[in-house]
Specification:
The chain is globular, with a radius of gyration of 21 Å. It has two domains: about 180 residues, Rossmann fold, CATH 3.40.50; about 110 residues, 3-Layer(aba) Sandwich (Rossmann fold), CATH 3.40.50.920. The protein contains 13 helices and 15 strands. It is of the alpha/beta class.
Length: about 375
């Protein structure tokens, strides 16, 4: 075990290396640039490849190609670059290409506030590309979680054959804290499932458990990769509603039906809570401090901090709907996770404490919101 002093961005890069990432393609953009800079230094040291691409569209295309070449691949960006990656993220979902996209969020929209915090890319992470598809998004709130959840991102990308988003924010990316790095043999690493049949019997998109085995280029199997609607052989069937129905249902259900397995929630003082804060990323840290303040005043308040944002834990919130008087969503946007909580517990049970970006919530202002909500009931 090693004790390091890392920023969130560096911890994310080291987590990627520990997970087996050996290819990075990216384009510098504040506040994620340190990830690319660090990977440019570290990847050659471990036999990997770093490429600075001409833009974010090319970066996303490059990591999809690298993944089909057999490498664990990653890119990192922020809001404007994430927008440019969306078409190829959809391609990755359709072709079931495992890869990791780190989005260190800043205040938007458009160029916005490049050096300041935001959390308004939540819905973009889920719905940014077109058509029906499902994606996984993880949200760290500390450099330690940047390390741990980046490893997890690679593992679930490989397990479910899907692009996975590490949805960081500027404050977490730039803060420095202690990070415990376990020995290599203690780190759980998941590898993609490989074919168990000879090449002449292999169907690239035949799945017995929603996720088909993946044969990469150069492994002796026929590989056909297309963004068009395709059958189990991988061949285009772009005029067949039946094939489209089968394919899209499987692409969505492989994530939806595994939500419980993917669920990752920190519950803080929720055992006897009558009110619950709901938060993620840097806002979760301020929310935890506010819960402590409220508890000292005798308020029965707890915190639900989402480490897995997508797929959203609908069932979890539905079960809490009758137990919690009010949910207070704390997020640095104008109410994105709030919409998901409302959908599950009812609009009348949800309050929002937003910020438009640029600064984080202070524990005191969250505490004042708790008082306001409690005294209004």
């Amino acid at each position: 075990m090693q004790i390091k002093f890392y920023s969130g961005n560096i911890a994310c890069a080291e987590g990627a290396l520990a997970a087996g990432c050996r290819f990075f393609a990216g384009y510098p953009i504040t506040p994620s640039s340190e990830i690319a800079e660090y990977m440019a230094l570290r990847l050659p040291q471990v036999g990997g490849v770093f490429i600075q691409m001409e833009d974010e569209l090319a970066s996303m295309a490059a990591i999809l190609g690298a993944s089909w070449g057999g490498a664990k691949a990653m890119t990192a960006t922020s809001g404007p670059g994430f927008s440019l990656m969306q078409e190829n993220i959809g391609l990755g979902a359709m072709t079931e290409t495992p890869c990791v996209v780190v989005n260190v969020q800043r205040a938007g929209p458009s160029t916005g506030m490049p050096t300041l915090v935001g959390q308004a890319d939540v819905m973009q992470a889920r719905w940014g590309s077109h058509g029906d598809y499902e994606i996984i998004a993880l949200s760290p709130s500390s450099p330690q979680e940047c390390f741990d959840l980046t490893i997890k991102a690679f593992n679930v990308a490989e397990e479910y054959r899907v692009p996975v988003v590490v949805l960081m924010d500027e404050s977490v990316g730039h803060m420095f804290e202690k990070v415990v790095v376990p020995p290599k043999e203690k780190i759980k690493i998941v590898e993609r499932k490989k074919p168990k049949v000879p090449p002449e019997e292999f169907l690239p998109y035949k799945a017995d458990d929603f996720v088909p085995p993946m044969a990469c280029a150069g492994e002796g199997y026929k590989v056909h990769v297309t963004g068009l609607t395709h059958d189990e052989k991988g061949y285009p069937q772009a005029t067949s509603p039946e094939v489209q129905e089968r394919l899209v249902r499987r692409l969505c259900d492989k994530i939806r039906k595994n939500e419980r397995k993917l669920r990752d929630i920190e519950e803080f003082m929720m055992d006897d809570a009558e009110y619950a804060l709901v938060s993620f990323g840097i806002s979760g840290r301020s929310s935890k401090a506010a819960v402590r303040m409220a508890r000292q005043k005798g308020y029965k308040v707890g915190l639900i901090r989402l480490r897995t944002i997508w797929p959203f834990p609908d069932e979890y919130f539905e079960k809490l709907a009758n137990e919690i008087k009010k949910f207070i969503v704390v997020e640095i946007n104008y109410g994105q996770i709030k919409l998901e909580v409302e959908r599950n517990v009812g609009k009348e049970k949800v309050e929002l404490l937003p910020k438009m970006g640029g600064e984080i919530h202070m524990p005191g202002e969250i505490y004042e919101k708790i008082k306001e909500v409690k005294n209004g009931n």
